[in-house]
Amino acid sequence: xxxxxxxxxxxxxxxxxxxxxxxxxxxxxxxxxxxxxxxxxxxxxxxxxxxxxxxxxxxxxxxxxxxxxxxxxxxxxxxxxxxxxxxxxxxxxxxxxxxxxxxxxxxxxxxxxxxxxxxxxxxxxxxxxxxxxxxxxxxxxxxxxxxxxxxxxxxxxxxxxxxxxxxxxxxxxxxxxxxxxxxxxxxxxxxxxxxxxxxxxxxxxxxxxxxxxxxxxxxxxxxxxxxxxxxxxxxxxxxxxxxxxxxxxxxxxxxxxxxxxxxxxxxxxxxxxxxxxxxxxxxxxxxxxxx
Length: 291
Ligand SMILES: Cc1cc2nc3c(=O)[nH]c(=O)nc-3n(C[C@H](O)[C@H](O)[C@H](O)COP(=O)(O)OP(=O)(O)OC[C@H]3O[C@@H](n4cnc5c(N)ncnc54)[C@H](O)[C@@H]3O)c2cc1C
What we know:
Blueprint: E1 7-9, H1 14-24, E2 28-31, H2 37-42, E3 50-53, E4 63-66, E5 69-73, H3 78-83, H4 85-90, H5 92-98, H6 104-109, H7 112-118, H8 124-131, E6 135-140, E7 143-148, H9 149-152, E8 153-155, E9 158-159, E10 166-173, E11 180-186, E12 196-205, E13 208-217, E14 224-225, H10 227-233, H11 240-253, H12 264-286
Parallel strand pairs: 1-3, 2-3
Antiparallel strand pairs: 4-5, 5-10, 6-7, 6-10, 8-9, 11-12, 12-13, 13-14
The site of flavin-adenine dinucleotide has 31 residues, from β2, α2, α6, α7 and α8.
């Protein structure tokens, strides 16, 4: 199908783009990588009067070191996250997860801002934003605000962004020193959205788990943390029994639904298996058994 007719603007600054959104109310849409928006236009699921193409706005495509973390511009592409040496050294879990997103042509265009704003329940970047406790900046003609990832994803394909707000950057605080990470997902074919995905961060000191974070995608309307599973690990030793119990608790926290691709019961089972694998990998990395 072809999209319904729309007007097109390519502003050169965030201020100009924000003014266009304010002027058109909910009838304008931002265009970033176009990998989710253009299919929705072609299927006429969306019929905006105006597309505001943000690709010509300078300064939104950088990865910068800041005190205690990294700042990523909204136009950083999936492929840049996959290949950046800075991401590989500071957030290797992101580089690893990006290899699982779609196909190379899509990763070359798709952006972090577009993925977070689109908020597909099975997408990797929303899961990572929740896991890494990202802070997301939104700008409108009214000003600028910072939204915690835990408050950002409100329902399937729905976020805390107002229709006149532009997601401009994402700040990622460094995980605790000496922590290990794990990421595991299952998709029916390479490049498909995951049936379920799990990311974890683990830190130990003196043989005791000090930090445990578990986030999952594809098993609820939004990415989810598993607080009861995290609590089971924190303050204890990270042995096989603890990992198995936390994996069962993560599966209990999932909110999967039956759909065309898998039953809810199968997705819940996947969460348990993927969490066990991701936790075991994270512990091995924290103990420097694997890189
Ligand atoms: C075949 C296929 C397979 C895919 N598989 C996966 C997968 O496995 N995992 C995965 O995570 N994704 C997958 N995707 C989606 C892909 O990663 C998209 O690129 C991504 O979800 C959207 O990013 P984008 O930059 O293309 O956004 P766009 O398509 O340009 O925009 C998406 C939405 O976000 C809004 N938006 C964009 N940028 C901003 C901004 N800065 N501020 C506010 N709103 C904004 C747009 O208005 C639109 O509503 C797949 C896509 C396809 C076509």
